[in-house]
């Protein structure tokens, strides 16, 4: 069974430099979507170092990173890879699609 797409927001509600969170009801996964210079990326909204919401941290649109407020771990929003300690494991990355002015994501694991 393929995962269902989850509506996040309209494209007008997610401008460059902004992020939005949603919850994949099918898998129970919190997801955060980033608009990096007009391209949308989605990651699991959970720091791989400690179970904490990445969306509570700072999205640095200049370098494409998000920083966890708990211990300062940073991740690349484009592919989820850890950029510095204390995180060493990547964060799960999910597909994003734009359809009829809406932004959708899904946990495809």
From TrEMBL:
<dbReference type="GO" id="GO:0051213">
    <property type="term" value="F:dioxygenase activity"/>
</dbReference>
<keyword id="KW-0479">Metal-binding</keyword>
<dbReference type="InterPro" id="IPR036922">
    <property type="entry name" value="Rieske_2Fe-2S_sf"/>
</dbReference>
<keyword id="KW-0408">Iron</keyword>
<keyword id="KW-0560">Oxidoreductase</keyword>
<keyword id="KW-0001">2Fe-2S</keyword>
<dbReference type="GO" id="GO:0051537">
    <property type="term" value="F:2 iron, 2 sulfur cluster binding"/>
</dbReference>
<dbReference type="InterPro" id="IPR017941">
    <property type="entry name" value="Rieske_2Fe-2S"/>
</dbReference>
<feature type="domain" description="Rieske">
    <location>
        <begin position="6"/>
        <end position="105"/>
    </location>
</feature>
<keyword id="KW-0411">Iron-sulfur</keyword>
<protein>
    <submittedName>
        <fullName>3-phenylpropionate/trans-cinnamate dioxygenase ferredoxin subunit</fullName>
    </submittedName>
</protein>
<dbReference type="Pfam" id="PF00355">
    <property type="entry name" value="Rieske"/>
</dbReference>
<keyword id="KW-0223">Dioxygenase</keyword>
<dbReference type="GO" id="GO:0046872">
    <property type="term" value="F:metal ion binding"/>
</dbReference>
